[in-house]
Amino acid sequence: MRETLSMLTRLQEIDNTLDQLAHSKVDLPGEIEMLKGQVQELEDGIAEGETKLSELEKERRQEELGLEMAQDKLKKYQQQLYRIKTNREYDAIQAEIDAQKTKISEYEENILDLMTTSEELTETLQQRREELDNLKAENAPQWERLEKELSSIEDRMAIERDERKKVTVRLKRGVLAAYERIRVGKSGQAIVPIRKRACGGCFTTLPPQTIQEVRRTDRIITCENCGRIIYWDDNLKS
Ligand SMILES: [Zn+2]
User: Fold this and answer.
1) Could you tell me the sign of the dihedral formed by the alpha carbons of 14, 17, 23, 24, in that order?
2) 181 lies in which domain range?
3) What is the pTM of this model?
C-alpha cells in the first residue's frame, strides 16, 4: 500500500506539472495567430490593390482603343469633307466630326483619370509592401520565440506523459480510476498529505482514529469532508 500511495503522489506531481505546462501554453497559439493575422491582413490588402490595379489598366486599354477608333473616324470624316457637294452633306459630316471630337476629349479625360488613379494606387501599394516587409522583420523574432516556446512546452509535456504512463501501468485499475475521479472533482488535486492533523486539501481537522489509520497505511483512506485521498508524509519517505 505504501508503494501505491507513493505512486499516487508521483502521479499527482506529474499531473500538476502537466497542468502547469498546459496552462502556460494556453496563450501561445493565440499570440502566434495574432502575428500571422497582422501579416495576412496586409497581404490581403496588397492582393486586393493589385487586382484593382490590373482592372484599372484593362479599363485604360479599353479607353485607348476607343480613342484610337474615334481618331480614325474623325480622320475619315475630315477627308470626306473635301469631297462634299451639298450643304446638307456638309452639315451632316460636320456634325459627325463634332461628335467624334467630343468623344475623343471624353476618352482622353477618362484615360488621364485612370492614369492618375493607377499612379496613386501604385504608390499606396509600394507603401503597403514596405509596411509588410517591416512588419515581417519585426514579427519574425517574436514569432520564432513563441514557436520555440510552444514546441519546448510540448516536448516537456510529451516527456511527462511518458512518465505518467510508466506510473499508471503499475497502478491497480480501481485505484487509478478513483484517483482520476477525485482529481476531476477537486480541481486537479486528488491526493494530499496530512498537515497539522488536518486534511491538506480542505484543511478540515481529522479525527485521531483516521490519522492513526492513515499512518498504518494498509488501505486507501479518503478525507470525509472533501473526498481526497490522504496520506502520512513520513510514511512515504525512504
Ligand atoms: Zn479534505
Assistant:
1) negative
2) 173-236
3) 0.69
